[in-house]
Description:
The chain is of the alpha/beta class. Helices cover 39% and strands 16% of the residues. The protein is built from 9 helices and 10 strands. A hairpin with a 2-residue loop joins strand 9 (271-273) and strand 10 (276-277).
Amino acid sequence: MTKFDLHFHSTYSDGKLSIPELAAIIKEKKLEYCALTDHNTVGGVRELTKALVGFPTEVIPATEITAKYNDNEIHILAYDFDIDEAAKILNERAEIVRVKKIEEIKIAIKLSREAGLEVALDLEPLEKQPASLTVALDICANSINQKLFLKQYGKQLLPEDIYYLYQAPGKPCFVERSGVTAEWVIGKFKKVASDLILAHPFVSVSVVTRPLDEAEIDDLLKLGLTGIEVYHNNTSKEQIEFLKTKALKEQIHYTGGSDFHGKASDTPIGQYGPQSAVPGFYLLNSKA
């Protein structure tokens, strides 16, 4: 059986392990294919390829891109591209998000203060943190706010409480989250990548987003995605069967992986469950 993993992360994004550490695991597991899918960067792909020189593992260039979809947020896995061309697109994306975040955080601060919350006026957006979370963390760190919450809600609030009570759509401090749309990502990457795969469609990408439904999956495929991620550690058996059947029936491409981030509790590389190796994948230029 071919061993592979087309979804894992390194310290180039939010993973805990370095490229040499990941390469050692890949060699130990004797993977025949692997794809480092760091979030919105291809910085580690060449390093991983170099670390596996002389070892019979094909490294498929990849990245996991965050995109806005309607009022939600999704992840799109891009595979098999020229690394330099992909880096240019991701740099363009990063600049768009950076500029939008500056305005987003200004509005979020203004609305939070209008809602009676103490929040620093000089907060600056962070590259790898949503602007709403930056504001929520500052709100929660302020003892004046926590005294107010204790009186109003009977408890001190956490950042996720701030989101649902103040920042979610329809709440008084809601601000549209900065980012690029799924259409933007598809339009840019379809010119350079062989495959664009919808990542873990039934798993929300954060605590403040929601899973997709079947109609939304179909809509995204119509927008130009070439396939779906069938095998994922947080996807149920029933959902996997649905996605597998869909991929075969509609003859679209599909992938799977551990979504390994290097934590002790993570699904091991090469698996999508504690005892379940990923059984197969199908991309334009490679399959198993």
